[in-house]
Design goal:
Strand 18 and strand 19 form a beta hairpin. With about 325 residues, this protein is mainly beta. The chain folds into 2 domains: about 130 residues, Jelly Rolls (Sandwich); about 140 residues, Jelly Rolls (Sandwich), CATH 2.60.120.10. The longest helix has 14 residues. The termini are far apart.
Length: about 325
């Protein structure tokens, strides 16, 4: 095996990740025209509503019954980073916070000691299709931060640097690419300490173009996901789309693109190197802590649900916005 590439693997659902990342999923849904209720304006016949993960007619309802998405569910012990390149996501949570984000926006949420939230995909356009392209990434929290207060912040697309490097366009969502630094992550995140070298980059490489990914300062886990294109050559190996590469972060690596534009997501970070106990939406260090999380959720519902519906969406005429638990409102 080459010195730059440690391993090549096919992309499943979800994508395979390395510490400090727990989970990464890519949603690409070609939703149809919506109706006035922001639902698909087509029949839902033949779908397993409530658990629709089969790509039928190019899209899925996921856990949604009328509007696609993920009605309220709990999290504890980790963070979610949600990147919406196309379409919109409506956020509501048990802290009373809310938002609508999309068109390149990123939401960074620290679940900490426990929060409920819903993530719905309203179909706002009644005169054209409603495509959705979304990544959701879970980053672990170290034991010392498992019980911090829940927190969410928006990285609006206007504030996220997009740079031109060689023949590539690189969106620097976390960390830094050469001298370009991303917006600050959530305050209690593993990514908040520069020495952990956490990076999230969305890369678009021009046809027949080249890009050199620089080496990291230390021995961190680095994974490159090739999710759209024709083929690329990396370190003398031909790589087809829908494959991931575990890279040696101590060395730079050059990507040579084929005939079509190629799209990548890169995740990088110093491993936390602590025991991981997982059960669905809870990520702790021991099974005893998982049992405790389940019991606390049963008793407290992590603050309950202040919204009228489990699959809450906002008014269709709302633009991009974020309402924070303290009442602060940002509108875009």
């Amino acid at each position: 095996m080459s010195t730059a590439i440690k391993r090549i693997f096919p992309l499943g659902f979800p994508w395979e990740t390395e510490d400090p990342f727990l989970f990464c999923v890519y949603h690409l849904d070609h939703y149809p025209i919506g109706n006035e209720q922001m639902e698909p304006a087509v029949s839902l016949e033949g779908r397993n509503l409530g658990n629709d993960f089969t790509l039928k007619d190019g899209w899925r309802m996921y856990h949604g019954q009328t509007i696609p998405g993920f009605p309220y569910h709990p999290h504890r012990g980790f963070e979610t980073v949600t990147i919406v390149n196309k379409g919109f996501c409506d956020h509501s949570d048990s802290l009373g916070a809310a938002g609508r984000f999309g068109l390149g926006d990123v939401q960074w949420m620290t679940a900490g000691r426990g929060v409920q939230h819903s993530e719905m995909f309203p179909l706002l356009h009644t005169d054209k299709e409603n495509p959705l392209e979304l990544f959701q990434i879970w980053i672990n929290l170290p034991k010392a931060n498992k019980f911090v207060d829940p927190h969410f912040k928006m990285l609006w697309h206007e504030d996220i640097p997009v740079i031109q490097q060689e023949d590539a366009e690189i969106k620097v969502i976390a960390g830094r690419f050469l001298e370009t630094k991303a917006p600050e992550p959530a305050p209690n995140s593993w990514a908040n300490k520069a020495e952990n070298e956490v990076a999230i980059w969305n890369i678009h490489l021009a046809p027949k173009g080249t890009l050199t990914i620089p080496s990291a300062a230390s021995d961190v886990n680095r994974t490159l996901y090739y999710y759209e294109g024709e083929s690329v050559s990396i370190d003398g190996k031909t790589i087809n789309p829908d494959h991931g590469l575990s890279l040696n972060a101590k060395t730079s690596v050059k990507i040579l693109n084929g005939e079509k534009k190629s799209h990548f997501l890169l995740l990088q970070g110093k491993p936390i190197n602590e025991p991981v106990a997982k059960y669905g939406p809870f990520v702790m260090n021991t099974q005893q802590e998982i049992q405790q999380a389940m019991e606390e959720y049963r008793l407290t519902q992590f603050g309950g649900w202040p919204w009228p519906h489990a699959d809450n969406v906002h008014d269709r005429d709302k633009g991009r916005f974020a309402k924070y638990p303290n009442g602060d409102l940002v509108e875009k």
